[in-house]
């Protein structure tokens, strides 16, 4: 079964939407093992002239099964995504449910295995109307930057987020709390699947940047630092690389894998979206 939660979206329009005829969509992605022996993150995307899909997944489980879970999530979502699907919250939820079914079927066929599971975050954009929708399970986040400032971010499915929601702290505790890695929802859990979605399609405008990133990424980069580094970057690829270098400098002995995909609306470098599929990670 699936529980779908609609996340509020509030971003006042800053300027008129760009001319769709001249729109470009840039993508950059990066996945790094951190200081772990194995990279259990996976990410990938598929773009076309009609619609686009991006996915980041952070796997977990014993004996290296986390990388199996995250790769299965990414491949299942990209295999189930076709350009004719509308870029809506309903599509994002259906894709995440397909990933849940794939992981649960794998676990049923391999009962000797461990309790592998994964976070998953899907971003969809209609290439013609430049409207976006997203859905997530776990603590892999979506950020929307407008005028180089964060105007939206998803809320984690985590124990610490529940503490905050109940009034036992504010967002300042989310990166340092000893229980920050405990999830309340994940792909591969036998409980009812909780999916949070963006709600009605979000109209994107020229200059908008979306970031999908695992907890290993955002835990070591506060939002104000992301904004400042975006301000200093000439492309989303440069931005991701700059943030990754900053994370590497701040890594502890056993720092987690970290992965991200950045999507830019409008031209920085004149690269027109082409039909392609790419997967990186484990």
Describe the structure using short key phrases.
14 strands, five-stranded antiparallel beta sheet, 282 residues, 6 helices, Phosphatase 2c, domain 1, disordered N terminus, alpha+beta, nine-stranded mixed beta sheet, globular, 26% helix
Total E-strand runs: 14
Low-confidence stretches: 1-22, 268-279
Q: Any idea what the shape is?
A: globular
User: What is the CATH C level class, in words?
Assistant: Alpha Beta
CATH architecture: 4-Layer Sandwich
- N→C terminal distance: 29 Å
Radius of gyration from the alpha-carbon trace, in angstroms:
18 Å
- List the secondary-structure elements in sequence, H or E: EEEEHHEEEEEHEEEHHHEE
CATH homology-level superfamily: PPM-type phosphatase domain
CATH topology: Phosphatase 2c, domain 1
Helix-strand makeup class: alpha+beta
Strand content: 25-35%
Average residue pLDDT: 84
Query: What is the total domain count?
Result: 1
Largest sheet: 9 strands, mixed
Percent range for helical residues? 25-40%
> Total helix count?
6
